[in-house]
User: Fold this.
Amino acid sequence: MELNRPLEVDEIARASNLDRCTGCHRCTRVCPASEHGGVVPHQVVAETQEGTVDLSQDSMIWKCLMCNICSHVCPVRINPSYLITLLRNASAERGHAPKRYMEARSMVRSSGRSFPNTRLTSKMRGELGLPPLNDDQEAVDELLMLWSTTPMGDDGDE
Amino acid sequence: MNEIYLYTGCLIPTRLPHLERASTFVLDALGVDYERMPGQTCCVEPIGLRSLGVEAWMVGAARILAMAERDGRDLLTLCNGCYMSLSQARMLLMDLDERARVNRVLEPIDLEYGGDVNVWNVAEFVHAMGKRKFKDTVRSPQRRQVALHPGCHMTEAPIMDGFDALSILEDILTWCGAEVVCWGEGMCCGGGLSGVDDRISKAVMDATLTTYRDSGAGTVITPCPFCFIQFDVRGRSLPALFLTQLMALALGADEEAIGLRYHRTR
Assistant:
């Protein structure tokens, strides 16, 4: 399997054993986002099977909390949460990922961390007697070398 | 040589260093021989960043596992997200074909993972030290009624044989002197959509906090820094403590020294 590009929807469907789905909707009944207008897991499963799943930035796949509760309750061991992750990878490849996640990616690419080391961080750490938080450029360079072999290595949209 | 690498992750050392301070207080009080892991990078964060690329997630996590193994250390995590990322990667890398494939990616940075690192969550680690060890160290029992919020990702990794995350957490809370009046299994903090869809995020968080408040709990206890920040900074309706903060208080920490003044909800 090639891993220098995200899987396409038909490949995701085949890799996710979606033909096991019995349509019990248990995934949707336990989904905390679903009852507030978020993702409808059983619908994502069905639409992925049909090849009609929406990969746009407005898609319900981006309204998932990634809590994984759906995957815990599935009686036939489909993993809707991971399915949504793979679909998000395909959507991100098309440039539809939320700005928040792209900002986190930029932070990791520059500092190795997904949250910023601010002046308030230094002040709080000093007050608490914790060691200062220094960037480790060698560690960042290593991570970026690994990421250069993956779709995350493409920084053309930054 | 130190017994274990403390893997602090990203959110705690940057935005919530008081949670790191409480955690190191607990480890010091219990006599744990640890060292902050050198060269650590993001775990890779399993909600947003894994949504951008599962392969980037895998190789980032594999680098951390391989470094710990090279140095002969296990990994001790403070964050549910780090725990889930590193544990899941560790499990996937038990597959020899997948490990060989990932090791080919690690080769240019002179790392190779052989499958011989344990990943601990701080709750699991303290629990494994035993009830007697902990209770003998308690100086100030925290007699309060609490809601136990494990956080969705605490349950993603296999805990010790015969235990699950909820029972480990409940044991520790009881050792600290607290009474659990509400068990938040399957309850979500809404943090996964914070900053992405704040309407859904807030609705989910409000439903969870309402359940906890209605139970009569005066404090919500969580081992997850993402859940903590949801409740303390965004929820503002029920005081929250990170698990190691409750432990630190029970073990005699001074509130000022572990930075409880930084809390937004008291």
Helices of chain A lie at 9-15, 26-30, 41-50, 69-73, 80-93, 99-111, 119-127, 137-147. Chain A touches chain B through 61 residues (CB under 8 Å). Chain A has a mean pLDDT of 93. Chain A is about 45% helix and 0% strand.
